[in-house]
Structures are given as structure tokens and as C-alpha cells.
User: Which sequence fits this backbone?
């Protein structure tokens, strides 16, 4: 049986457009220190380090994990790098957890980061290739046709996406680490913001952020001696699929469904909406909230937008609060964004989410996706030790 | 974790002292260092076959040996099964629009594109996956999933071994394909039709 694994500490930097006061090493060290402080541990307690970030050509630093080894206290220790595009923060946490679950290491530091101010992600994602025309404008250009398909399939009201965006920006006001803090923002302003990748409006897209997020994971003994509440890992899953093949369901990819089935089965969860108290899912474009609600089985196919419309995913009064931290729509240091979802799920379980805490959260779902909606990472954490 | 993100971790809160001679020097916050990499693209067999034919206004796909699915551009392999796809199929330059995006921001290196423009997944007649193309010759608000289109090619003397040979895809005026059988739905619609004989 796998070793029980706990989240002992969480560390985040403030997410913002430009962290001009720190270099890449400074940025990651800040998150790592915060995670160690939270876990009440020191560098010597860490057995291995697992790092994730988006593709190297974003910042133009090749294999940055090597030059960040000292900043991450990894010299002389096993150091592993994970690559799964935008889902990487989640995949990285899953890989780190597997090292503890397998009994390879007792305590692992894992970290995701991005310094978007030193890169240009939109154009890094639009590299010309001889066999394809150069007309795809970044991730928004890629996901817009998929969102259009979802809208056509479900006949969802046109402003569902705006409702998601407005909700997440309201949530962000309750998270001091969130990048966008738009206190004056109104729903009408979201609706009236310009179309960038029709049907995606400017206000329905994520910002470009600098930031890093770190977790300290430990085995059962480490979890037992923690003086603070820990979040126990109840399930982890990864899946991927090719981004173009005959009959591919781009709106609800099989890799997403299979990944969800796997992680919920591991956690022994049968009624997903009833048993999960809070969800942190990867929503870089607003419409992905209803799309993932369906794909992840929190509702029937075609009903995702109804949960949004009913306010079911709102922190105030919703029965399935989604992205209480403000989500990717409010902070997007790409390589960290998946890990932030996993970290926020753990904070909710530990009762440490502050003003965006869901009272009494016992089971939380963390989710990340990447590439052409083709890489998936998920975990479920709980307040009780898994059986 | 610290509730206040503006409070640095204790271990990082020490004072940083600059050498005396640097006290009055303006600190460097960032340095821009543009980098450029020139390279020759050496296509594999399938991409080379595709690009060579494309320079002669021919669109080549490859047929999957597993179930006959036609893949374009050909990559030498069926991504579902990992099976090699040695058989080439010539495809017409007509098809329909699957998913599409009306883009309202400029792309570096494509100053020729008027904003807004429509990028679309073009599903060629006889192909079972889409590839990206520009749709023009119609108001952006009139573009539809399932709309029939035909390629508008560059003049012969401008053709080369590049995907840019097709300037854009223009509507043919034929009736639309139903959305339930368009784009990525086309494959499933075809399988269902097969089963019904």
C-alpha cells in the first residue's frame, strides 16, 4: 500500500505583473521559504526537490531548474523537473507526491513558477511552423473555437462566461496573494470589455503574472508530528492525449474524463458534487468553468452553465464553491498556476484560506490542464487520513 | 503561511547593504537582451511530401491503416494508434469550417492581416481532421461552423514549400453542413452513418 502523504506547508509569492524587485532565484526562494516556514521545517529536512514551469522559451532560460538549484536548496539532493505545459504546476505536485507515496523520500519540496514579465507567453505559443499557417494568436486563439463549440452544443446564455469572470474577480478581492484586485469592477464592465478572441472578451481572460508557489509534502510520520493541520492526499491522477485526431472531443476530452474517474475512484467518492466541499480548477478563460464542471462529473453534460447561473460555484451561498482564491482568471504565473490550484485546495482543508475560506471544508479538489486541453493533473485532499 | 504577502519570509528580511562606491549609482532593474535563432527546417518524409506537393497546389493527406481515417497535414503516423501511415491521399481544396475564432489583436510577423480576422479549423472534403486556415471574403460576423469553403491560392509564381500558399479560404455559397456533422463532429457522424449501412 502507498505511504500516506500530507501537505505540511504552502508558500506563495504575491502575484503581480512584474516582480522587478527579485530575480528568478529570488522569486522561487521567497515561495520556498514561505512553504518551509509554514511547515516549520528547514532546508535540511528536505530530501528532494521537484520543480515545474512552462516551456523554457517563455523566459529564454534553458533548464532553469539547474541554475535555480542553489536557490531551492537542492544542491546535493535529487532534483527533478516536470514538463506538461500549462498543467505543469499540478503534474509537478503529483510527481512530488508520488515520491513520498512510493516511500522514496520522506519530505519533498515542490515548486512551480513563472516570470511572465521576462517573457512573452502569447507569442511563445505562436511559433511559426512550415506546415501550418501563422494565424493562431496564442492560447486564446486556440481555445476560442472550442468555447464556441461548447456554446453551440449547450445553447448556454451568452453571458455565462462573464458571470464566471466577475465571480472570480470578486473572489480575488478576498485573497491578498491574487494578482487582480479590481474593487471597482462591475458586471457591466466585464460584459462591455472588448472582444479579443471572439467569443472571448478581454475581461474573460487571465492576466500575465510573475509568481511562484511551493508545497512541502511529507509522509505519514511527518504529517502526524505537524503542529498545524495538514491536508492528506486522497488521490492523484495524470492523463494526456494527442491534440488532434479523428473524432477528438475537444470540449470534453477523454483524457480529462479518465483522469477525473481515476482520482475520484482513488478517493472513494461517488457523489462528486455532494462530497467535494471546494474546487480549485484551471480556468484561464471564463467558459472553461462550466466546461470542466461537466467534464469532471460535478453535473450532467450540458448543465455546467446552469450551476454558474444559479450561483452554485460562488463562495457566498454556493454549494460547490469554485476558485475561491480568484483562480487563474485573477493570477496566472503559468508554471505555478496549476500548483496554486493544488495549494489552495490544501489551504482550504487546513482552514488556512483566510477571507476566502469555505467553512468546514473536509474534501477539496485541485485541477490543472495544459497544452491544447490535452494534459491533465488532479488531486483530492482531505482533512482526514485516507483509509 | 503568512497572511500578509507584503511581509517577506523571516529568512529574507535581513538588510541588504551596498558597497559604499555604489551608493549613488542608479540600480539596474532589468536588461533587455533580444535573442534570435536562425535555423534550417528539415522536414521528415511525410512533411516533405506534403510541402513538395503543396508547392504544386496539391494537398496531400495520409490514410490510417487501422480504420482508413485520412489525416492532414500528414505526419507519418496515426496519433491514436501509433501506426505508420505510408499511404498518401490527394485531397481537394474544398471543405468546411469547423471551430473558428474571430481574432481582434495583431500577430507579429503578420502585418498583412487586417483586424479582425477569422482563424478556423478547415475540414477538407475527404479528410478526418481539421487544419488551421484563414477565412476571408466574407464579413467576420457571417462565418459559421459548417460553412462550405474553397481555397484561394497565391499566384503560381509565389508558390513555395510553405503552408502560406493558400491565402485564405472563401465561402463557396453552397448550403452549410449541419453543425452536428461539422468539424470534430464529422468523424462521429460518419461512423454512425456507416453503422446504419
Assistant:
Amino acid at each position: 500500500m502507498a505511504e500516506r502523504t500530507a501537505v505540511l506547508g504552502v508558500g506563495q509569492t504575491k502575484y503581480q505583473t512584474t516582480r522587478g524587485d527579485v530575480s528568478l532565484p529570488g522569486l522561487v526562494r521567497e515561495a520556498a521559504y514561505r512553504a518551509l516556514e509554514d511547515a516549520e521545517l528547514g532546508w535540511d529536512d528536505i530530501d528532494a526537490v521537484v520543480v515545474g514551469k512552462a516551456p523554457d522559451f517563455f523566459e529564454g532560460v534553458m533548464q532553469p531548474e539547474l541554475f535555480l538549484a542553489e536557490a531551492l536548496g537542492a544542491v546535493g539532493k535529487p532534483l527533478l523537473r516536470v514538463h506538461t505545459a500549462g498543467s505543469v504546476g499540478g503534474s509537478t505536485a503529483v510527481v512530488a507526491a508520488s515520491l513520498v507515496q512510493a516511500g522514496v523520500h520522506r519530505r519533498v519540496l515542490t515548486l512551480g513558477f513563472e516570470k511572465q514579465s521576462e517573457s512573452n507567453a502569447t507569442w511563445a505559443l505562436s511559433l511559426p511552423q512550415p506546415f501550418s499557417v501563422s494565424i493562431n494568436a496564442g492560447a486564446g486563439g486556440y481555445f476560442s473555437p472550442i468555447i464556441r463549440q461548447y456554446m453551440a452544443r449547450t445553447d448556454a446564455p451568452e453571458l455565462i462566461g462573464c458571470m464566471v469572470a466577475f465571480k472570480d474577480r470578486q473572489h480575488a478581492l478576498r485573497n491578498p496573494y491574487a494578482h487582480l484586485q479590481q474593487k471597482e469592477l462591475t458586471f457591466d464592465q466585464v460584459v462591455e470589455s472588448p472582444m479579443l478572441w471572439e467569443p472571448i472578451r478581454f475581461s474573460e481572460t487571465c492576466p500575465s503574472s510573475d509568481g511562484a508557489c511551493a508545497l512541502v509534502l511529507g509522509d505519514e510520520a511527518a504529517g502526524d508530528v505537524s503542529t498545524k493541520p495538514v491536508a492528506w492526499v486522497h488521490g492523484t491522477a495524470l492523463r494526456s492525449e494527442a491534440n488532434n485526431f479523428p473524432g477528438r472531443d475537444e470540449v470534453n476530452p477523454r483524457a480529462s474524463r479518465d483522469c477525473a474517474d481515476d482520482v475520484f475512484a482513488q478517493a472513494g467518492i461517488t457523489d462528486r458534487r455532494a462530497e467535494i466541499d471546494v474546487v480549485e480548477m484551471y480556468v484561464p478563460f471564463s467558459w472553461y468553468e462550466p466546461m470542466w464542471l461537466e467534464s469532471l462529473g460535478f453535473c450532467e453534460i450540458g448543465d455546467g452553465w446552469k450551476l454558474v447561473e444559479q450561483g452554485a460555484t460562488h463562495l457566498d451561498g454556493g454549494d460547490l464553491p469554485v476558485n475561491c482564491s480568484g483562480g487563474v482568471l485573477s493570477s496566472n504565473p503559468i508554471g505555478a498556476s496549476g500548483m496554486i490550484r493544488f495549494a489552495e485546495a490544501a489551504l482550504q482543508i487546513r482552514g488556512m484560506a483566510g477571507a476566502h475560506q469555505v467553512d468546514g471544508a473536509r474534501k477539496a479538489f485541485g485541477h490543472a490542464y495544459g497544452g491544447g486541453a490535452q494534459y491533465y493533473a488532479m488531486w483530492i485532499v482531505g482533512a482526514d487520513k485516507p483509509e | 503561511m503568512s497572511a500578509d504577502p507584503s511581509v517577506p519570509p523571516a529568512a529574507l528580511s535581513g538588510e541588504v547593504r551596498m558597497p559604499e562606491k555604489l551608493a549613488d549609482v542608479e540600480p539596474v532593474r532589468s536588461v533587455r537582451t533580444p535573442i534570435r535563432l536562425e535555423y534550417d527546417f528539415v522536414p521528415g518524409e511525410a512533411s516533405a511530401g506534403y510541402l513538395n506537393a503543396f508547392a504544386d497546389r496539391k494537398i496531400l493527406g495520409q490514410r490510417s491503416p487501422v480504420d482508413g481515417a485520412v489525416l492532414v497535414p500528414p505526419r507519418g503516423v496515426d496519433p491514436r494508434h501509433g501506426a505508420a501511415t505510408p499511404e498518401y491521399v490527394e485531397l481537394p481544396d474544398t471543405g468546411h469550417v469547423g471551430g473558428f475564432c474571430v481574432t481582434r489583436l495583431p500577430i507579429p510577423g503578420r502585418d498583412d492581416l487586417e483586424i479582425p480576422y477569422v482563424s478556423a479549423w478547415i475540414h477538407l472534403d475527404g479528410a478526418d481532421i481539421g487544419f488551421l486556415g484563414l477565412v476571408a471574403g466574407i464579413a467576420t460576423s457571417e462565418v459559421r461552423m459548417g460553412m462550405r469553403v474553397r481555397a484561394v491560392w497565391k499566384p503560381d509564381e509565389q508558390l513555395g514549400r510553405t503552408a502560406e500558399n493558400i491565402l485564405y479560404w472563401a465561402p463557396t455559397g453552397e448550403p452549410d453542413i449541419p453543425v452536428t456533422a461539422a468539424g470534430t463532429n464529422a468523424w462521429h457522424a460518419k461512423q454512425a452513418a456507416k453503422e446504419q449501412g
Remarks:
- Chain B touches chain A through 64 residues (CB under 8 Å).
- The helical segments of chain B are 45-54, 185-195.
